[in-house]
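Students often ask why we bother encoding 3D structure as a string. The short answer is that it lets us treat folding as translation between two languages. Here is a chain of 738 residues written in the first language.
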Amino acid sequence: MEKKFRDLKFADLREYESTGKNIPLEFYLKTFPVSKKIDIFLGYYSSYVFKTLSHAMASFIYNGGSMRIITNEFLSENDKKNLLENSNNIDPKYISNLIRNKKLNLDPESAHFYDCLKYLMNNNRLKIQPVKFIKNDDDGLEHKKQLILYDGQDYISTSGSINLTLSAIIKNDETFTLDLPWEYSEITQKRIEERRKTFESIINKENRDFKYINSNDIISDIKEFSNEKNLAELMSDSKKLKSSIKVSEQIKELIKLSKQDLDQKIRLSNKPKFPFDQPYPYQDLAYNSWVENNFSGLFEMATGTGKTLTSILCLINEYNKTNVQKNIIVVPGKELVRQWVDELQGCSFENIFSWYSENKNLHSEIKSIKAIGSSKTKSLNIVITYDSFKESKKFESIFKNDFKDFIVVFDEAHNMGSIGFMKSTKKKIFGKTIGLSATPLRDWDEQGSNDFIDNFFKSEKPVFKFSMEEAIGRFLCDYNYFPFFCHLEDDEWDLFKYWTKKIPIKPKDRTINANAAMQRQAVIDKAVNKRTTLIKILELLLKENNISNTLVYCPKGLSENDEEEEKIIHMIAQSVAKNFKNQINHQFFLGETKDRDLLLKEFENQEVDLLYAIKCLDEGVNVPSTKNAIFIASGKNKREFIQRRGRVLRKFKGKEIANIYDIIVLPTTYQFQSDKNYAEKLLIGEFGRLIEFMEISKNKLDSINLIDKQLQVLSQTYLGIKELIEENEQNYITKENS
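And here it is in the second language, the structure alphabet:
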């Protein structure tokens, strides 16, 4: 049964004072976790106090509470000083600027306070109104110190010295009295009601005795200093938090009891929960469509639209019906393993295990999985890579290829179309299945991969789609698209024609020569003139003072261990270093790169300007701070370049719009005139990507004009090539059907 104020034991004399038997902190630690609503009149308060109240604050949030504050100012300069590590000798007037310039960092306890505020703000559960008292035509301080709390049944109120500063609650001789409406006279009830009316008139800016100060700086501070955390993450952070403040044994005991109360509250409702107050309507629609398709289906959703949480909603909804959480999540690599584990933990799933070859704890985790699997436990959640799912003998020995009691989620489901995976699934039995992908179709589908995926999920088309066009503005930011053009050298042109001749569909088995197609694309991706074009783009970004947060997607090899891949990316970096000396801080983000999380943080903080990447950013790694993306190579592979665009368009604080700089290869006038058939194939391949990108860009009309000028020498136009591509696609469909 939910605890109410009437269940609490308050101070005998209804008075709390720092030097008395019942101290102010005792009151806060008892009432905050029970409260549904906290309204505070403050002179000042310090976030430092939440180092002591962290567990009570977390319980309040967990309880669904909302908070409103009326104060002189949100943070005094001294408070900003207290928020910072090693800042004792810094003049307070410089602190705000230092924070904004990221010269100093918040300590973990203060950071947790801001994360709590951001969670409340994101869920419309926080309102702060700074004011000045102007009665008698004089600016004065708002020094009223009252607290009004509501538990869903009763309002209780305090009056007196309740500055929520560290000194006030554990050092100073502070005191306040408590009014409880159920035990005193009618006057007490009227007093509480009057305080409520006064508070409402001020918070709604209706009281003429006050001047209302803009709260934009406050909101800005919260956004600046906080991280995006869901409810479970806040609870987890609160449990880990250890106060660095020296306090008395009495206060230590109160904090300990508060922590125990929070732990118990979480345990009592320890079941999977959606991390936000409610899912988006489209996520409910995806779930219903999945159920209607007999609990199987593919979700085709643009990168950044919440594929992961949409599938987790399905897992939670099924748990609510069956009281069972047995789920297996299959992902391409270790980055996504970690991200999925974090998401599942954040949604309060239990018994979560990571299964991938580089997991140092894999041996012990396998033992735990065996033990749980052989017990009657209804909770088992495994995040495993595609390679381990199809090849691990230990995994096979535990589950005997029988997954009918599990919901199996295949993230980046296009990976299911590999020959090895299709072969391995013939032995496996599945029950409920979910596929997730921004681009489920595989290019050069010589092995029938697309048909296999359709059949596996029991539908010829995705059961739910959420397009990039729908996502931009809601979940992704707008973008500008800037194509830059270069040409193939003559020897590269000869190679392009050589491999093109080998691609056509083989009459016997109706498949294309996939190796030839990849070899031809490699010629385009590695074109030597692209390096010169890259230098031009970087010169432009430096001139515009916009070089920070730039990703460069480089050509990849033809195989997993292609030494040419590493050679080319280092040649690109050497060219940049030679042209820009020490003007650009550029680093590699490759599969073997160590301290990758640290590198991404430095990139986010603009300590590193530019990252070179190949394929490790295609799936799983989020770099939302990216403002500029330069595509040296993204080729004809639609899945690849659409995924890359989605990563660039993720929203991030201070990021209004993204910029995509795409290096497009055109035939020279001579190449076009001498071999028009091959030249048109080159244009079709390159412009397929260009059209996809440009059609929903912000600067579409300006770009089309620039492209038409570039194409004049070939007697071509943007619309003409667009028609050529459509005609080519129709011819391909006709051949296939015949």
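Translate back mentally: Residues 74-104 have pLDDT under 50 and may be disordered. Keep this in mind for the problem set.
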